[in-house]
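User: These chains co-purify. Model them together.
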Amino acid sequence: MTKSIHNNLDRHKIAEIQPLMQIHQLSLFYNQKPAFKDVTLSIPQNSITAIVGASGCGKSSFLICLNRLSDLIPGCTVSGHIQLGTLNILSPKANTTALRRRIGTIFQKPNPFPMSIKKNITFPLKEHGVKDSQQRHNIVEQVLKDVGLWSEVKDRLQDNALTLSGGQKQRLCIARTLALQPEILLMDEPCSALDPISSGIVEDLILRLRQKYNYTIIIVTHNLAQAKRIADYTALFWVDKGCGRLIEFAPAEQFFNAPNNELTKAYVNGIKG
Amino acid sequence: MNLSGLKMIRQNQYGLDKVISLFFWLVPLIVTSLFIWILGDIIRGGIGQLNWAFLTTAPLDTGRQGGIAPILVSTLLILGVCLAVSLPIGIGTAILLAEFTPNHNWFGRLVRRSLDVLAGVPSIVFGLFGNAFFAKTLGLGFSILSGGLTLACMVLPILIRATETGLSAVPQEYRLSSASLGISRTSTLWHLLLPAATPGLLVGLVLGIGRAIAETAALIFTSGYVDRMPTSLLDSGRSLSIHIFDLSMNVTGGDANAYGSALVLILILLLINAIASYLSGKYSKTLKV
Amino acid sequence: MWKPKTLSLFPLRNWFKYRKDFLLVWLLRGLSAIAGIVILLILGFLLREALPVLEEVGITAFFRDDSWNPGEKSYNLVPMIWGTGLTMMGAVLLATPLGIVSALFCHYYAPMPIASLYRRLIELLAGIPSVVYGFWGLVVLVPLINRLHPPGTSLLAGIAVLTLMILPTITLVADASFAKVPPEYLMGAAAMGLSSWGTIWQIVIPSAKSGLFTGVILETGRAIGETMAVLMVCGNVVQTPDSIFDPVRTLTANIALEMAYALDNHRSALFVSGLLLLGVIIVLAIAAELVDREAS
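Assistant: Joint model of the three components:
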């Protein structure tokens, strides 16, 4: 299955792709201390971009800049440009609420709200103006089927979401994000807090969603095998002098088989990291 | 030093340690027995007075006879005014400080400092202020309104601190994931943070009520002494604590009813305490991730 | 499947709908401003009411006049300052060791259930109204002291009741600061074979020092500001006491006793003593802040 998706994709050189999001000289600081610096890359449309690297190299911090979640973190400042169409995301005037609706985020630790399973999905929907309760119910059913949770929870939609297992919680969080029909999905190590079986289910889910809805997905992972299985493009972040840097960004095939950078070569071959 | 000398010292040391341990058990024992003495004395003196008639009749003969009905009503009204004013201001301030103020914001720092000072102001000073501002300048006179407003100023720091603690106990992930779904901060606050911070809010509410009900000095010159049934918020009303004070200090032969009133006051406080710990226990159970 | 409205990512025109957060923040700022301004109001009104007498007789009159007799235009507050100072000092000297020992007991000597029971008891003790303490002191403690040495209503009774009242403050603060002592320190001490008392004296107390200081400052503030309990048990005679069995009158009791009938300069003089109390409290708050800053 993995193979077929890869084969169906048009293989472009980075220079030729139609970028969806252009990131230029992006840096992020926690209380003046840089987490990563001068990252420049373009996110290709309708593809899965994996970001790999050792922990603490600013991968997750990079992700939260892309929909301005960094605003919420005390002491965190961002500089540089992120261009989405004609909008500079980092402009103080950008409508962050709409931005975050269209760029969904899945976190490492599944974090459903302390409400019923159904309300976890309907609460954001209500917030975004879906007023009809029958319509909301249909969406709940649809997205729960999409993430393969419907058969497991259809009789207990009113139960507190915190009673679900870890893998179920993460799928609920994905469903909650999907319900808002985002155009880009950001995933911050979505499998690393889960047991191997749930992790496999979530990984399959990502591939299925990718095939069904043609999402643009940016996924942070420290699991190189996972990146190899699902990614179309791969970026390597590495710590240099106490601050994260982008080392290499390339189509997955090239990244894993013929990397340009010595560090990438060492990392891919398991010598480092 | 030879070995036997070392042994001697060690034994002495252990002996000293034992004596000190004994002392460490003795102090709590004394404190506990004092507590039981006070509580036991109030219960012993008050239990005979406590009956339905005591709670539902008006005081007679400046309080020597009769009950405390109008005093209970006044106490509740003062408390009501106090909470109606202090809850919105207190919770609003706590939300601003906990959710919308960066760490080094000058406005937040200024408000925090001033609340720290306010928390230490003696209740009699609140009484002076209430008398000068609410009773005299605003022309409310000696009234339940003046008393309630004075108490509102007094309980503000307590409410704010507890609510802030409750809000900061809510995991940061809730805020992040809510924002990542494009939910406005107002809705996040209303549907997510406030329900999750309920235990903290309740604790603050209870501490505030406790402080307000126990207060005497701030009320003497604001809500006044009149022990009749109040007919409006502009009437003077005597709180339960002032009633105890007046009976024991100014009325010879008022001790029996003072005991009764003190018991009622303590029972109310214990009841509120119990409700709070029950509620916050219940809420924290449903919140556990 | 629903079709979401394509929300523009650019700034929006519909002011109310999209500035909901903005409105909330300004509402909250307004409420906070009210909360922040209360202390200034208190200071302002106390000053306003105190000014007439300060202008007429000056500050020194409050320390140099022959006696406290506002009817005869003499405003000597010194006996009351002694009253407040002595009751406060006695209570702080007694409550501090008792409170610290209580907190240490909870942390290092008592088994878990007893420790939490004792904590709960201290919290209840903190919740007992001061008028109840005063009443108990008046009907139980004062007659006992009277048997020892008449008249019973005395500095000693005030110190005793006040000690009980501020004990929970220091205990709870000390308890919290002992909880912050890193467990590695204790492990290290145990590894060196220190006795439990040695550990407490040489390791726990020094590392919790700033917390204990804060506790002492807080309890001092409470002791100075307490009104009802000392009013009820101290006897309220305006005099500088010679022994702990003499009755005294504190600044707070003075206000509570005379406000009811004070007029003009007399009333104004009472506000001066209120201002004095507030000044001490502000100094204590600054001291607490400094201790806090030192620690961090």
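Chain A has one domain: 2-268.
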